[in-house]
Write a structure and sequence with these properties.
single chain, 137 residues, alpha+beta, 4-stranded antiparallel sheet, 6 helices, 4 strands
Length: 137
């Protein structure tokens, strides 16, 4: 994942590009002549920099790749994944047999569904999402 942007100011263009691949940040910043900027890099202390071009590369534990299944996925997506369906039927049979619950929950984001369930169900849903991400359809 990467992004870049710029803003035109009265002093010139300020630009920044950032990417994070394989646990490595790569950041390029351009500050116009006769200007300073307060720069706040991910996982670093804020610094004030003068005009010029700056290049940073450093390791991180952060990962910005979006998983196939996350808290914004609809609950039915877990049910459509064979691994998710099997796990939910095995560990939450009562819930999966509740037709009224399923009618409502299928179209809801997982985040909404977990808000209706007991807290211990959150661990199960998290485990199901992890297994579905490891075995996407």
């Amino acid at each position: 994942p990467s992004m870049e942007g710029y803003i035109d100011t009265a002093y010139g263009k300020i630009s920044c590009g950032i990417s994070c691949f394989d646990n490595q940040y790569v950041i390029d910043i351009e500050i116009p002549a006769n200007t300073t900027a307060i720069v706040s890099l991910p996982e670093k202390e804020e610094v004030e920099l003068g005009s010029g071009n700056y290049h940073y590369e450093y390791r991180t534990e952060s990962v910005f790749v979006k998983e196939r299944y996350d808290m914004e996925s609809k609950f039915k997506e877990l049910l459509e994944n064979p691994v998710g369906a099997e796990m939910l039927n095995q560990y939450a049979k009562e819930l999966m047999d509740n037709e009224l619950f399923l009618m409502f929950a299928k179209e809801q984001p997982i985040m909404e569904v977990t808000g209706m369930l007991p807290p211990e169900a959150m661990q199960l849903i998290q485990m199901v999402m992890e297994q579905c991400n490891a075995n996407p359809v």
